[in-house]
Structures
1.
Amino acid sequence: MQSLRGCNIFLTFIPVLCQQTELRMKQSYAKNSSYGYWKKLPLMASITGLLFAAGCKKHDYPVPPGEVNKVKHIVVIYLENHSFDNLYGSFAGANGLSDARARNIIQVDSNDKPYKFLPAIPGTSAFPTNLANNVFNIDQYVPNDQETPDVLHRYYQEQLQIDGGKMDKYALYNTSAGLSQGYYQTNLLPLIGVARQYTLCDNFYHSAFGGSFLNHMWLIASASPVFPGAPSSIVAKLDSKGNLITDGQVTPDGYVVNTSYTVNNPHPASASPATLVPNQTIPTIGDRLSEKKVSWAWYSGGWDSALAGHADPTFQFHHQPFAYFANYADGTQGRKDHLKDEKEFIAAAKAGTLPSVSFVKPLGINNEHPGYSDVENGESHTVELINDVLSGPNGKDVVIIVTYDENGGFWDHVAPPVIDKKWGPGTRVPTLIVGPFAKRGYVDHTEYETVSILSLIENRFDLKPLASRDKNANPLQNAFDFNLPQGGGHGK
């Protein structure tokens, strides 16, 4: 058994019987070859495309058609602002820091010249001012149970940081400068026991360039919100070549890409009414689920207090994406039925009354966001949420997805795939797949992105895709084995 630091639970590792599992997957796939996403995959492409290099397995096969219907509950826990290398760079079997090459590590200045030392980290004396132009361990200066400064994560800046896949300008386009190159010791993470027991995805990217606001929108809508006629004061200005002159919340063609607040409640009392984002009418995953009468809810830490007008100091108004939509606006039945406080999720998990799909957004202090949260506290809270679900009556048929909205400005050595030059995806982020159907002790190298979560939900509940990105995204198919022994492997 392994004790998880910061919580009072124990997780038992369940080994994978490699050859037997492989044979079962082959046989089951051969018998069931036409359903949803998997119907579109040619057999050889499906098999060869899912080979991987971690653990004891040598081959992997798509989830057998129809097997996904064994999943009765999907829980998405949406955390904040860490790249894969920043947290899991030293995870055994993963594509991590030891796989990085100097050309992807060394940071350069505005003239494309390598820095002698990383730019000094402002606003704190915890870090040396002569850090080598390399990655460095944050824990030796600031333990993971303490807060660090925030790191810049915005729409235009992330594209500049990625620098066409060179990954060499994270320190340059960053208000926290060299902090972008910091990483945490993986073996000290409270979630490490969960990651070792279940599936860790090391090729998962946040779907939209930029920060939390935009990526929350993509999590539920696979699209960017619009603000027709936005005040010129909040619109970004670009030159004739598309280079950024002045940053803003809204692009020149009317898309809201950086932190903005809804015209609905809750929003900060200090927000200018003219800058509040009007109600959106594009479809969301909530709409699709409701059309099929599939139960769902978005659970947010501190929601009830924020609605009552006394929001917790770390409550993040722009982390409530459904609140921006007309179907969940103030006074609607949709809001009453589907937007709830995290405490209701915990109660439902313990009672076995979870809806079919749950999105869980922890309160700021519990979400790992640098600047107002820390890694240890946020991950310990997440472990408690996982344990509440797996120890409850719904634990027997659940898939829990723990992922991060975006990289938070932290560097990663893997260049993201080019799918949509305007929108993304952005930098690689950690994602854990947990529960009785998740492969055990497995590192999944399959390419996924945030909207792969939507694709999974759509495939499971036979929903119409929201847009082309979620329609074409892999629905996490290589993370599951529906033939594993059930009934164990969760916290007690």
2.
Amino acid sequence: MKPKPGDLVKFEILPDWVSKLPDESQRVFRHCLGRTYTVYEIDQNGLLVLDVSKDIDKLFGGFMNDIRAEPEFVTRVCV
């Protein structure tokens, strides 16, 4: 079943396209790998918007940071 907004997911697979991002963005994605996040929304391209602010805001700066990834790179977490 595809994740939907509000679901908890584990970011398990680093997409190949991450290697084409700027260095800091790559570090953010790598830091998030293996961690659990809430799906905030699904964007117009079908990408999951994951709220990573609890891990990323303090380490990398900013406020309300998110990452986007295709559903096949995450696994739903049962709670």
